[in-house]
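Pipeline run #58 for the internal structure catalog. This entry was flagged by the ingest filter as a single-chain record with no existing model, so it goes straight to prediction. Upstream metadata was stripped on purpose; only the residue string is passed forward. Reviewer on rotation: M.T. Logging verbosity set to normal.
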Amino acid sequence: MMSVELVVSKVACMNPLDILLHPATVHVPIGALVAGVCFVFWAQYRQLPELEQSAYWLLPFAWLTMIPSLITGTIDAVNHLNDPATPPEALTWINLHAVSAIALFVFVWRGWQMRRRIREVPAWQSSQYRSYLINYGLILVLVSLSGWSGGHMVYTLHLGR
């Protein structure tokens, strides 16, 4: 349990933008990706081409909204690594969070490009569609890993609080 004095001293020495910007920018792409996963698998199951098209358009949206999230996350990571009050085990969690976020960025781009190249209508008739679904599944795994490591840093290591 952190004492009130420790929390106040940590917040006083940090830039207020660091505390607010990363959490504010990270949840929009997460929501878009989770919705996209739900859409693409439900569209496949129910054979709904319009819903599948919506899942496709959530990929470029999520990819573009991830850019500010990656920038603010990098700023937060640098600030925490330079803070002497940061616990030593935080480096492992910061690295896990960063690697999973960068991998997520790459896999979202990859999924966007994979689906963009599928010309068949409906898309699930393409021979490449199975690879696209696997990629979307990996996106869900990476969102979970990044969210779990970020949550561990905030709620267990008390970084960014």
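catalog note: The chain has a mean pLDDT of 88.
catalog note: The chain has five helices and no strands.
status: ready for reviewer M.T.
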